[in-house]
Design a protein that fits this description.
By secondary structure, the protein is mainly alpha-helical. It has 13 helices and 2 strands, in the order H-H-H-H-H-E-E-H-H-H-H-H-H-H-H. The chain has a two-stranded antiparallel ribbon. The longest helix is centred in the C-terminal third of the chain and has 28 residues. It is elongated.
């Protein structure tokens, strides 16, 4: 049965692990212990075995025990803050159980996707992307999340510019942001800036959405997060144009 020693064979190795990474290791250990994911557990179940005198474990000195126990307690606190574990409602305060969110992290792929969720700048994402795209990103579906993000850009641009459904992709962006006739172009901007904005929207759709329409792209988490951030930025521009046009309408 795996334990913390399998991931951190020395005290030094354990102390180098960040609390969130150590927390996910603990969740993984819960899931790999037969029957544990549906029962209660304590922090001692993870700490005591690494000081077991009968196996090659950590030194027994009190100050080492204290240092290690505090490091594991940090990870434990992180798990509670993230809503992955909670005090077991049917036991004393020392006992915990997995939350529904914690139960979903069943395998290394789930844990890896959860570890990378912080790459997505959720605080600055447009609401539609939080609703439609973030769940895909958290599942590790990076290609699909990016495609959906730019699909939402396309949907919003079409609606804001009142363009028909048969105008799609790059053509849609070029039409909506045409320097002279585009419904979403900035009328008071200099010609070069109008063209540049048209290029940004058209280039973004051509680069980030079109390839995913035809093949598997295999984006990394970082690439997907950066592209989704770009989609959010473009959606923000559209919303500003809509608000401005509304306020200036007779």
């Amino acid at each position: 049965m795996p334990g913390l020693l399998d991931f951190a064979p020395t005290v030094e190795a354990l102390l180098e692990i960040e609390p969130e990474d150590l927390g996910l290791i603990l969740i993984g250990l819960v899931h790999t212990t037969p029957g544990q994911q549906n029962s209660n557990f304590t922090i001692s179940q993870f700490v005591v075995p690494i000081f077991n005198a009968n196996v090659p474990g950590y030194p027994q000195q009190p100050h080492i025990r204290q240092t290690v126990s505090r490091a594991v307690a940090e990870a434990w606190q992180w798990l509670q803050t993230e809503g992955l574990i909670m005090p077991a409602p049917d036991q004393s305060n020392d006992w915990f159980c997995l939350t529904r969110r914690g139960r979903r992290l069943k395998n290394p792929a789930d844990l890896n996707a959860y570890r990378k969720r912080g790459l997505l700048p959720t605080e600055s994402l447009q609401p539609i992307l939080l609703e439609k795209v973030r769940p895909m990103f958290l599942r590790g579906d990076y290609d699909l999340a990016t495609f959906e993000a730019f699909k939402q850009v396309e949907i919003r641009v079409r609606a804001a510019a009142s363009l028909p459904a048969d105008i799609v992709g790059v053509e849609l962006m070029r039409t909506a942001f045409h320097p002279s006739t585009g419904a979403l172009t900035e009328k008071t901007a200099v010609p070069g800036e109008k063209q540049a904005l048209s290029d940004i929207f058209a280039g973004a759709i051509g680069h980030a959405k079109n390839p995913g329409s035809h093949r598997t792209v295999n984006l990394t988490a970082i690439e997907a997060a950066e592209l989704i951030g770009l989609a959010s930025y473009l959606l923000g521009i559209v919303e500003m144009r809509v608000a401005r046009n509304t306020s200036t309408s007779p």
